[in-house]
Structure formats: C-alpha cells, structure tokens
Design brief:
Two copies of one chain form a homodimer. Chain A has 435 residues and is mainly α. Helices cover 66% and strands 6% of the residues of chain A. Chain A folds into three domains: 6-113, MgtE N-terminal fold (Alpha Horseshoe), CATH 1.25.60.10; 129-230, CBS-domain, CATH 3.10.580.10; 261-434, Tetracycline Repressor, domain 2, CATH 1.10.357.20. Chain A has 23 helices and six strands. In chain A, the strands form two sheets. A three-stranded mixed sheet of chain A has the order 1-2-3. Chain A has a three-stranded mixed sheet with strand order 4-5-6. In chain A, strand 2 (155-159) and strand 3 form a beta hairpin. The longest helix of chain A is centred in the last third of the chain and has 31 residues, at 335-365. The first copy, chain A, starts with 5 loop residues before the first helix and ends with a helix. The interface between A and B is large, with 116 and 116 residues.
Chain lengths: 435, 435
C-alpha cells in the first residue's frame, strides 16, 4: 500500500494511537512488517510493541534484526520490556541483553529477578524523584527535563539524603504552589507505598481503594525502587478476574481466542480426567448399594436430581467463599461466623427445596414415603453440600493453597459423592417403608 | 475518645486518606457519628462518603440533618452523588434536591436521567475545558483556578466556538510547551470519546486498551457532556468481574459479606428452585426408561458419572464462550469458526475420556459391552455438551440477552438431561447385547 512512500506512511501511521497502530501491525504479513521495521525508529516500534499481547509477541521479536530488537527493548518501559522478556527463551533474553547498552540492560536485569505476580514484577523504574530541599521552581525544571521518559509525571516522589521515600507531591499541587516554596512544605508526608514482594492483587486493591494514579514500591529500608502506574493495575485486575473465572469453570485459561481445537482441549482435558476418576468413585459407591437398587429400581430416577442439586448449591457456596477470601472479608468477619451463616443458608434453602420436591414426587408418583425420602435427602444434601462448598476453600486457604483451585466442577463432583451416600443411606435404612 | 477536643480530632482525622477516614467512620457508633457531623464541614464529610460502599451508605444520610446532607451531596463529585442518590428512595432524593442550591441540583438532576451502566451514569461533570484559540499561558491560569474542583486536571479538553469537542491536551504537554504557543497548535486532534449511551463495560475496555486516565463523553453532536476518570473505571471493572463470576456460579451477588443467612438464602434460592424443576424433568426422563432400568439395574451406577461429565465439559465451554463474547473476540473470529473449534475440542476430549472409561469399566466389571456403552455415551455426551455449552450463550447473545445469565449450574442441568437421553437411548437400543 505505502510502497516506497516512507513519509506518507510515517505521517499517517504515527498519527494513530499506539493501540490502534498495534492492531494494524498485527494484521499485516511478515513481508510488510519487515518493511515497517526499516521505516520506523526503535522508539516508535517500542510504542507499538507495548500494545501487543505478551503471548502473541514472540514472532515479531524473532523476525527483527537482533540489534534492532535489542534497541526496541531498550526504548520500551522497563516493566513492559521485562514482561515480554519473561515470555521468551532464556538464551534469547541473554543475547538481547548482551547487545543492549549497559544502563538499559542493568535496569532490565534487576527487574527480571522479581518473582511473578509481585509488586516488583509489575513496577517500572522510569519515575521522577526530587529532593525534599528543592524549591517548587527547581522541581518543575527537573520535571520538564524528565517528562519525555517518565512513565508518569503526575506524581513526583520525594526522597531525603539517605534516598529514603519521605513524601509525594502531585503535579496538581505543584502547579498551584508558589515558585519559591519548598517541596518539604507542600509535599504529602503520609505517602502510601508497597513493599517489593507484595502480591499484585493486594497492590491492585490499594490503588483502587485509594484512587491512586501510581503507587511507589520500596524495599524494607524504604528506598524507592520503582512505581506501579494505574494502567498496569488495570491489566492486573483483568488478569486476576479472568483467572478466578477460569478456575471456577475448571479451564486453565478462558481468554485465548486464537487457540485451535487441540490447544483448547489441552486446557480442559486434565480437569476432565481428574473429574472422570472422581466420577468413577461415585459409580463404585452406587455399586455398593446394588441390593437396594435391585429392590427399588425407581430410586435410580432421582439420582441426577439429587446429585445435581448438591453440585449447584456447592458451587454457589464455593463462589461466595472464594470471593470472600479474595476480598479479605472473611478474614475480617471470622471463619466461624461465615460457617454459621452458610449452615443457616443451607438449612433455609434445604427446607424450601426439600418440601417442594416432597410435594412434587408425592403428586407425581402417589408414593408418600418416596416423596419424603427424596425430600429428606435433598434437605440433608443441601445443608452438607453448602457447608462443603464453603469449607473446602477455607481449608485450602489455611493450607496456603489458592482457594480458587477448588473449581465449580470439582466441588460438584465431590458433592455428587456426598449426596449419593446420603440418598442411598437413607433409602437402605428405611427400605421397609418403600417396598 | 476525642470528646470536646474538636481541634485535635480534626488535626488527626483529616490527615488520613479519605479511604482510611471512611473505614474508621464506618466502625463508629451512631452517637459518635452524630458528633462528627458537627465537627466536620460538608465538604470534609463528602470526602468520607465518597469512599463508603453505595449499598451501605443509606443509614448515614438518613441520620444526618437533611440540610447538612443536601450540602454534603452538593460538595461530592457529581458522579458519586448520583450513584448514591440512585440507591435511595425517590421521595428522599426529591427532598434533598429541593433543599440543595439550584446549580448543584440541576447538575445532579441531569445525571440522574442516564440509564444505569451507561457512560452517562458513571461520568462526572467536573472537568476542565479550554478554547482552541487560547495560549498555553491563558490555559494554565484557567487550569489553576479550576484545579480545586475538577475531578482531574491531567487532561484538558478543547472545544471550538460551537462548543464541540475538537481536541485534548495533557498537563504533561502543557508544562513542556512554551507559554505563548496556541492550544490549537499543541493539542491532540485525534481525541477518542465515547457516546453518552455507551455500555460501561465497553468504556472500561477502551480506557484499559488505550491507557487513558480519563475519557470524554459526548452527545451525538460531539458536545462535551462529561468525563469518566480511571478511578471510576476500576470500580466498573471490579463490578463487572464480580457480576460475571456470580452468574457463572448462579448466585445473584457473591460480594455481600454482611449478609445474614436469610439474605444469603434469598440470593441463591430462586436459582435453586428453577434448577430443581429442571432436575425433575431429568427424573421424569429416566422414568420413561424404567423398563430398561428394570432389566439392567447396573446401568443406574453410571448415571451420576455421565451426567457429571456432561455438566463439567458444558461449564468449561460456557465459560470460554461467555468470555469470548464479553471481550468481543468471538464477534471478530466469527461464530462458525468458534463452533467448529468447540466441536473439535469436544471430539478430542470425548475420545480421550471415552476410551479411558471404557477401559476402567471393562477392567472393573469384566463386561466389555457395558464398558463400550459407557465409553460411547461419554464420547457422545462430551461432544454434544461442549457444543451446548457454547451454543447457549451465543443464542442468548443473538437474542440480546446477557449470555452470562446462562450460569454454570443451568448449563449443567440442561446437559444432565441431554446425557441421560444419550445414555439410556443407547442402552435401550443395544439392550440385547447387555443382558
């Protein structure tokens, strides 16, 4: 399209927002992309790369000239560069870092050390810092020179002689202050910071609760290491939400639209195989009640209903408990209070559904005892399954396992087992009333 | 604690971030709260109220003196005031608006008209606007006077003589420009805006993709009506994520830690009753195969296994489809491609699980035909249930129903039905091989 019209291409392409540039770039053929690398500067390509999904970016860096690719990495925000490098081969990363100039390489190397999903792994080192003793005027001059490279200039962090974080001042406060005032007089000393090892979900919660545009990251001696900006927090929120959602549905990742059937099956099959074995347990459990079944074959009719209701109520209780743990509400309320509430909920829903199904079965089969048996089973099942649905995530949390791992299908299958035991247990005990 | 020491209380309390003030305030007794209303100005109370959950705020405004409450509303960001007023009685709202001074009341009345979950309902009218013909210096003077009331001053929107939105300029660009330059020369003319009726989820997606700190909201003639800031977007993201999660688990809202057992049962019972009736359908379906069951009672053993697997795979497919619709990926890819992929996924997972269970049943019961029957049922069930799991949300989307309403438990119960039909259908057809 733009063959040999470099200027025209640059004028039209660069006027777009980098997000839109990235969407266009992704849709191009390799040949055209190779041409674009020669049309644009490493800095301009870096802007495009920052708006491409990390898991789809590898081929682009592989097809670039390695020296050019290293320059692109050097021009990116360090946090984005690190996120992308984390997706590449260790060997490739090492070779890029060797080509890169030393300062950029060092900054990236520092960040590569932080564990995934911590504050350190999502922070950037391009922040603006001033000394407490500067005047507003000096600070503004400093800010103007730093502006082109900084991730945000809307918060400026203030350090003392020991390089410890002592305050923060917003650009809003800077521009309404008099030029000769001192930073130390106008800065906010109650600066909220996070430690470098903090969980990214906790960081996201703080940014959201306090309505910050950025949050400073410090080491245990309060030295300022980096900042986390709100745009990165939105990505974290999206990632964590999609993660919780995927786990509830027992898929390893729901957000991968480009998968083919094989990749997609690979994400679901491990769960299904585990659930298949759990299901076989249920089958062998019913097998133990074969005598009961032989005598009253009609019992089989209600198996899926009872198992299904156990699964449904368990999934509900599970979801409430997982969210309660994630938001910290359960910690605050106390686990006992929560279990008592779930028991109450189970009794109320169990009573309602139990009475309802007793009536349905009685009217339908004209067998009062069968109705009572099914109703009583539903009641007991709902109480136990509700408790199980909330107890399992609580136990996992206690054992330091992510409670979201207890997915809906998992709790459903466990509750299938419990419900079958209750149903056939009751049926066997009251057999004489049924025949 | 601070009895009669107004100054001391004010000094210590007001130094805290409003989020922390709100946490303390919530924990106090009514008596103490009543005292605080007299210690603080309406503006200071407004800051606290902006950081309290909308569904827990009503008692505070009810216990305040109505005139004071109206002043508090007038001092709040219009978007927060509107969100809270939406939670109150219509009568109370009307009485507050009558007491309030006219300007504030008019702004709030305008916003109250917008439909929930649209751009209009989350925008604020406290934005800064300059004319294209101003110089940078004039714009900065204007900005400084507007700064105290504006929701953000980091983006300034530019309008022409017809009051239409023609550009945007960031504070970053303003402070690095020369004072005598014209706004029209430095502003970005490619301003991205949303229409006032746009869905809030779409607005959130744009802010996240483009890394904006604020987004202008316009009417169909490009008149600037308000802005949406990133802190509100984070609340929207949280709300939407929790909403999707709740629906997948079939609870009306997972995020209400303060509920008692009754409130909690009320959120789950409607779903459970619907699912109970669907489950009764399954039971009556098995009832139709009573003859088959009487002849081969062992068939009953595998009912929960097969129904369970159908539910599990359906939930997985559902979650992938719901997310794909929400992110717009399925629209982009085409529905056919997605259905083909799901069919492929169903065949692969169905084959794997089918062969596995055939072996398990064969080894366990030493009955080859029974093994093949269960294996074949699992295979067919998984293919059909996977397709159902993705087809149901697609159909709902087509019918303009929120696809997330098709919860995990719902699709599980529907797939129970399908799987029973397949299993007993096959068993009845090949009865002679089983006896």
């Amino acid at each position: 399209l733009f063959n040999d019209h470099i200027d025209q291409f640059r004028a039209e392409f660069l006027e777009l927002h980098p997000y839109d540039q990235a969407r266009i770039f992704e849709g191009l053929d390799k040949e055209v992309r190779m041409q674009i690398y020669t049309y644009l500067s490493p800095e301009e390509v870096a802007d495009v790369m920052e708006h491409i999904d990390y898991d789809e970016i590898e081929p682009f860096f592989t097809e670039m000239d390695p020296t050019f690719a290293a320059q692109v990495f050097a021009e990116m925000s360090t946090d984005d560069a690190v996120d992308i490098l984390n997706e590449l081969d260790k060997d490739k990363v090492a070779s890029f870092l060797t080509i890169m100039d030393d300062d950029a390489a060092d900054e990236i190397k520092d960040l590569l050390h932080y564990e995934e999903k911590t504050a350190g792994s999502i922070m950037t080192t391009e922040f603006v810092v001033v000394k407490a003793g500067m005047t507003i005027k000096e600070a503004m001059v400093h800010l103007r020179t730093e502006a082109p490279d900084a991730e945000t200039i809307y918060y400026t962090y203030v350090i003392n002689e020991d390089k410890r974080l002592v305050g923060v001042i917003s650009l809003r406060d800077l521009i309404i202050s008099e030029e000769e005032w001192l930073i130390s007089d106008v800065m906010n000393e109650r600066v909220v910071s996070v430690s470098v090892g903090e969980d990214q979900e906790e960081v996201a919660r703080m940014v959201r609760d306090y309505d910050f545009l950025a949050l400073p990251v410090v080491d245990f001696q309060d030295h300022l290491l980096g900042i986390i900006t709100v745009d990165d927090i939105m990505d974290v929120m999206e990632e964590e939400a999609s993660d919780d959602y995927s786990k509830l549905a027992a898929v390893s990742d729901v957000d991968s639209p480009d998968d083919n059937a094989f990749a997609s099956a690979k994400k679901r099959l491990p769960w299904l195989v585990i659930l298949l074995f759990l299901g076989s347990l249920t089958a062998s459990l019913i097998g133990r009640f074969e005598d009961t079944l032989d005598q009253v074959a009609i019992l089989a009719i209600f198996i899926p209903l009872i198992a299904g209701m156990a699964g449904n109520t368990g999934t509900q209780a599970l979801a409430v408990a997982v969210r309660g743990i994630a938001t910290g509400e359960i910690e605050k309320q106390g686990k006992w209070k929560m279990m008592m509430r779930e028991a109450g909920t189970g009794i109320i829903t169990g009573l309602s559904c139990g009475v309802l199904i007793t009536l349905i079965v009685y009217i339908w089969h004209e067998n009062f005892f069968l109705g009572v048996l099914v109703g009583l089973s539903i009641f007991m099942t709902l109480v136990v399954a509700t408790l199980a649905g909330s107890l399992v995530p609580l136990l996992m949390h206690r054992l330091k396992i992510d409670p979201a791992v207890a997915s809906g299908p998992f709790i459903t299958t466990v509750n299938d087992l419990i419900s079958i035991l209750i149903y056939f247990g009751l049926a066997t005990a009251f057999m004489n009333l049924l025949i």
